Amino acid sequence: MKSDLVDLRQKAHWVWRETLAVHRRAPETRLASSLSSIEIFVALYYGGVVRFDPANPRAESRDRCIISKGHGSICMYPILADLGFFPMEELQHVCEAGSFLGGIPDPVIPGYETVNGSLGHGLGVAAGVALGLKRKGSDHNVFVVAGDGELHEGANWEAIMFANQHKLDNLHLIVDDNRISMLGYTDDIVSHGPLAARLSAFGWDCLEVDGHDVMAVQSALLRQKDQAECRPKALIARTLKGHGVPGLENAPLSHIMNPKPELIDSLLEQQP
User: Fold this and answer.
1) What would the 3-class secondary structure string for 224-262 be?
2) Percent helix / strand / coil, the chain, rounded to 5
3) What is the pLDDT of residues 170-192, one digit of tens each?
4) How far is CA 224 from CA 141, 143, 174, 219, 261, in A?
5) What is the predicted pLDDT for the residue at 4?
């Protein structure tokens, strides 16, 4: 089901608010990393990109979405609840004893495919899944959402070469390019340089978009999904870590910062 411009923007704002509310109740969750990826997940799940069945999350008919930056996907909790993967009331119990919604998501959560704690492995897993689906003659796609900081891991570049070697045009890498990793700006640690040019040099079809323009993200994903060029596809979404939260947005240490509860309360009151 494809949503129109107003619906997607409204949904992204709703998810932003719900993500703040979840963090307000469970401050051990990673907020800044989750705020940068909201429009990516809204486009994927509300924009007619990913095929899924909330009543049967493991249905063979589904596309696979592997969330490599698991810590930065707390915004997926309200999305999955809203879509019917589990009851909305579960959002009140994130990180509580007995809840399946933890600070780092894992496959016990309906809608999650893989273990997402150790960074840098999602793309390799996704490449293997994409190859398996191709060899079975399946027309389903594999999407993997990774942070730009993860691309410091060499295993990703092995997967990037592997995907090109096997012409995995059913594989879609979406980079949440917020340019900040745990201890500062990624360019100050190991620069990716012109990331699109580098991925293109490895044989990937690459697009770049404003990662907070949900319609641009949706349009790019749908365009790449419809292409059949025997090349894996990458979408580089330029985002801001901590998007929309004063003092957190684009701060070099935002990965490990928590806004004060009073600030979250104020934001939720100001932006209905």
Assistant:
1) HHHCCCCCCEEEEEECCCCCCCCCCCCCCCHHHCCCCHH
2) 45, 10, 45
3) 999 999 999 999 889 999 999 99
4) 11, 11, 11, 9, 40
5) 55
Enumerate residues 6+ apart whose C-beta is below 8 A from 122: 66, 67, 68, 69, 114, 116, 144, 145, 146, 150
Q: What residue ranges define each of the domains in the chain, with the CATH number in brackets?
A: 5-270 (3.40.50.970)
The helix/strand/coil state of 146 is strand
CA gyration radius, the chain: 17
SS (H, E, C) 23-69: HHHCCCCCHHHHHCCHHHHHHHHHCCCCCCCCCCCCCCCCCEEEECC
The b/e string for 167-189 (b: 16+ C-beta within 10 A; e otherwise) is ebbbbbbbbbbbbbbeeeebeee
Neighbours of 16 (CB within 10 A): 22
Instruction: Output the pLDDT for position 222.
Output: 97
Spatial neighbors of 77 by CB under 8 A, at least 6 apart, are: 18, 19, 22, 90, 91, 94, 101, 105
Length of the chain: 272
pLDDT (0 to 100) of residue 117:
73
Q: Is the pTM of this model over 0.70?
A: yes
Q: Please report, as a single letter, which amino acid is at residue 223.
A: R
3 state DSSP class of 7: helix
Would you state the structure tokens that stand for residue 1, as one six-digit string? 């089901």
- pLDDT(95) > 80: yes
Sequence-separated (6 or more) residues with CB below 8 Å from residue 205? 224, 227, 229, 231, 232, 233, 234
Q: Whole-angstrom Cα distance, residue 32 to residue 244?
A: 10
